[in-house]
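Dear support,

I submitted the protein below through the web form. The confirmation email said the job was done, but the results page showed an empty box. After a refresh the structure appeared. I'm attaching both so you can tell me whether what I see now is the final result or a partial one.
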Amino acid sequence: MPRWPATVALVAVGVLLALVSSQLTVGPSWVPLAVILVLSVPLTVASLRGRPHMRRVIGFAGLVIVTVAVASAAALLIRQLLQGPVEGTYLLTGAGAIWAANLLTFSLWYWEIDGGGPSERSRDGHVSSDFLFPQLQIGDGTSSGGWWPGFLDYMFVAFNASTAFSPTDTLLLTRRAKVLMMIQSLISGVTVIVIAARAINTLG
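What the results page shows now:
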């Protein structure tokens, strides 16, 4: 299964966080992007040498780092909001970047954990473990029948969680998937409901 969509998404998260004001990051705003670019080297080597376990470990390490960075940016934006008046356009820009980075980050989480990861799904066929897509409910709900989800399918699940705060047509089957979606919805809810709403009021 092609991995380039996930690679592009991971780099996009780093770029989004780099564009966020340095006041919304624990350290320099370019650090997450730098970490992603550094990790891309061993990730590529592991993929070329056929070492999915190593690639998976490195990938999860990168996801943990960017998840902490996204959550920290949201927390710091709330802190600024509570400390006093903040320019509305500044809030909207920050909230938009955090919302998009949050969406892509959890798309990657879902893509990596479900069914043992993309390599397992591609080689053995997808077996429902963390998510149950509608296509898998047509049969007995345990085998792919020649179909398995791609990165866009997981991005759609993450988009629903960031907008409707629910997985809509896809069922969550494991506790880890539910915990991840709760974290994603919390970050999204903070940026959309609290920060963006306050920014609109400020602009008005």
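Response: this is the final, complete result; the empty box was a page-load delay. The chain has seven helices and two strands.
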